Amino acid sequence: MKAPGRAGQPPGRAGRRSGPAEGPVPARLRPLPLAAALALLAATSAAGLLIGAADLPAGAVLTAMLDRLPFVELHSGLSAIERNVLFELRLPRVLMAALVGGMLAMAGAGYQGVFRNPLADPYLLGAAAGAGVGATLVIVVTPGDPTYTVPLAAFAGALGGVLLAYALGSMAGSGGGSGAAVLVLAGVAVSSFLAAVQTFVQQARTDELQQIYAWILGGVGSADWRQLAMVAPYALVSTVVLLLHGRLLDVLAVGDEEASSLGLSATRVRLVVLVTASLATACAVAVSGLIGFVGIVVPHVVRRLAGGSYRIVLPLSLLGGAAFLGLADLAARSVVAPGELPLGVVTAFVGGPFFVAVLRATRRQVDP
C-alpha cells in the first residue's frame, strides 16, 4: 500500500526530483571500464617509450624495465646510450605527461562537480592563468633556482584565479544572467586579465623572457626525475582527496537541500574540492606550462561512456587524462619530427572543436 504523501504527490514534482540523475546512474566503478582505461594508459605509455628518434626494441625495453625491479637481474642488450635515452629522457617524459594529464582531468571533473556546470575547466575558469602568473612571478623575482617554490606560487595563483572568476560570475549572475554562460564569460575575463599581467611581467624582465615563453607554450619535453619528485606529493594529496569526495559530489548534484537533510555541509565540500582541484591544477601547470582543454574533454568522454556518478568520473578521468595527454605528447613529438609541436597546441586542436560541441549540447542552459 502506498504512503498517502507519495500517492498525493504531483507527477511533475516527482519528475523534477528524479531529473538531476537523468536515469539510472551506476554508483560504483565497474571492472570493465577500469580495465579499459588501464589498458589504454598502458598502450599510450608503451608507445611513448618506444617511439622516438632512437629506435629501441620493444623486448629490450621491457627487459630493461624489469631489470630495475628489486631482486631481478636481466640483460636487456641495450647500450649505455640507449639506457640513458630510455631512463633519463623517455620514461620521465611519459610519467610526467601521465601525471599532468591526470591532474588536469581530475581538476576539471572536480570543478564541474563544485559548480554543477559542464563547462567548468581549469583553463576556462582562470585557474591555469592564475597559476601561470604565480609561476612567472617566482621565475622573475626569486634569485637562483626557483624550482621548489614554483608549485606553491602556482597554487596560490590558481586558487586566486578561480575565486576571482567565481566571485565575478556570482555578481553578474545575480543580475539574471544564465549560470553557465556567466561563469564561462567570467573565467574568460579573468584569464584575459591575468594574461595581461603575465605579459607585463615578461616585458619588465626580458632577460627571463625565453624561459617564460618556453614554459607558457606547454610541454613535458624537459621532464626529469627531479621535477617528478617535486610535484609527486602535491599530485598524491590531490588524487586521494578528490577520489574520497566522489560520493559527496554525487550528493551535491542532487541539490543543496537534499545534501543538508543528509547532514552534509555543502559549503565545506565545495571548499575542499575547490582547493584540492586548484592544487592539482597548480602542480600540473608548474611543471608543464599552460595546457588547455584536458579538463573538459576527458570528463565529458568518461560520462558518455561510463556514467555520470563522480565515483566513476573521477578515477576514470585520472586514467583517461593520463592516457590522453600521453597520446597528445606522442603526436607533438612525431607530427613534425625531428621538430616538436608545443603540447598546448595539440590539445587545443582537439579541445577547441570539442568545447564547441559541449557548448551546443548545453545551449539550453547557457542561452540567456
From TrEMBL:
<feature type="transmembrane region" description="Helical">
    <location>
        <begin position="180"/>
        <end position="201"/>
    </location>
</feature>
<feature type="transmembrane region" description="Helical">
    <location>
        <begin position="343"/>
        <end position="362"/>
    </location>
</feature>
<feature type="transmembrane region" description="Helical">
    <location>
        <begin position="34"/>
        <end position="54"/>
    </location>
</feature>
<feature type="transmembrane region" description="Helical">
    <location>
        <begin position="94"/>
        <end position="111"/>
    </location>
</feature>
<dbReference type="Pfam" id="PF01032">
    <property type="entry name" value="FecCD"/>
</dbReference>
<comment type="similarity">
    <text>Belongs to the binding-protein-dependent transport system permease family. FecCD subfamily.</text>
</comment>
<protein>
    <submittedName>
        <fullName>Iron complex transport system permease protein</fullName>
    </submittedName>
</protein>
<keyword id="KW-0472">Membrane</keyword>
<feature type="region of interest" description="Disordered">
    <location>
        <begin position="1"/>
        <end position="25"/>
    </location>
</feature>
<keyword id="KW-1133">Transmembrane helix</keyword>
<dbReference type="GO" id="GO:0005886">
    <property type="term" value="C:plasma membrane"/>
</dbReference>
<feature type="transmembrane region" description="Helical">
    <location>
        <begin position="271"/>
        <end position="298"/>
    </location>
</feature>
<dbReference type="InterPro" id="IPR000522">
    <property type="entry name" value="ABC_transptr_permease_BtuC"/>
</dbReference>
<keyword id="KW-0813">Transport</keyword>
<dbReference type="GO" id="GO:0022857">
    <property type="term" value="F:transmembrane transporter activity"/>
</dbReference>
<feature type="transmembrane region" description="Helical">
    <location>
        <begin position="310"/>
        <end position="331"/>
    </location>
</feature>
<feature type="transmembrane region" description="Helical">
    <location>
        <begin position="148"/>
        <end position="168"/>
    </location>
</feature>
<dbReference type="InterPro" id="IPR037294">
    <property type="entry name" value="ABC_BtuC-like"/>
</dbReference>
<feature type="transmembrane region" description="Helical">
    <location>
        <begin position="123"/>
        <end position="142"/>
    </location>
</feature>
<dbReference type="GO" id="GO:0033214">
    <property type="term" value="P:siderophore-iron import into cell"/>
</dbReference>
<keyword id="KW-1003">Cell membrane</keyword>
<keyword id="KW-0812">Transmembrane</keyword>
